[in-house]
Amino acid sequence: MSSNNNTTPKIIGAFIIISFIAVGSYVFIFKPITKEDAVAQTTQQNTTETANNTSAQPTNTAVAEPKKTESEYTKTVSYVVPKFNNDITVKLTLDDTGTITAVSTSHVLNPRDKESAIYVEDFNAELSGVIIGKKIANVEPSIIAGASLTSDAFYDALNQINTEING
Question: What's the total number of domains in the chain?
Fold first, then answer.
């Protein structure tokens, strides 16, 4: 007695489709990234500068206003997030009174750390509004954009810069 089994080709076809989906998902999630891709993907920069607003008043004599001197400081801090190690480089510009006039950060994240990339993007978007215009010695640590570990690393770098300046 001969039986014609029509389900075998369907099972094999389903197995092949599932295999392609599994391999495609693995490659998409864990695809090898070149160093250039990693730097381009994970380096998030947010630079903001404030302009000096001065109003000129007419006078009979020419008086030169003293120029403010600005100093630039850079610190890199490594920090640990679940399963990965990341780096943040903080670059601050301070005027002669210790007021932060510009801030930028760059991040080197593990290419497989997709979650940190989201937090870092939000962190960079809010950073300038939190920091610009404050004196470095008076900055109170807070969690910026829900990025608690990135915020901790940022304030660690900020404290190192403050210690470098003020001893």
Answer: 2
Let me know if residue 1 belongs to a domain: no
Q: Is the model's pTM score more than 0.85?
A: no
The answer to whether 86 touches 79, Cβ cutoff 8 Å, is: yes
For residue 2, tell me if it sits in a domain: no
Residues 92 and 160 in one domain: yes
Return the DSSP state at 98.
S
Helix, strand or coil, per DSSP, at residue 90: strand
Residues facing 88 on adjacent strands: 77, 107
Cβ neighbour number for residue 158 with a 10 Å cutoff: 21
Are 72 and 140 members of one domain? yes
Q: pLDDT tens, position by position, for the chain (167 residues)?
A: 455 567 777 777 776 777 667 655 554 454 444 434 433 333 333 333 333 333 333 333 344 444 456 789 999 999 999 988 999 999 999 998 999 999 999 999 888 888 888 999 999 999 999 999 999 999 999 999 999 999 999 999 999 999 988 87
Q: Flag whether 58 is in a domain.
A: no
Q: CA 33 to CA 41: how far, in whole Å? A: 10
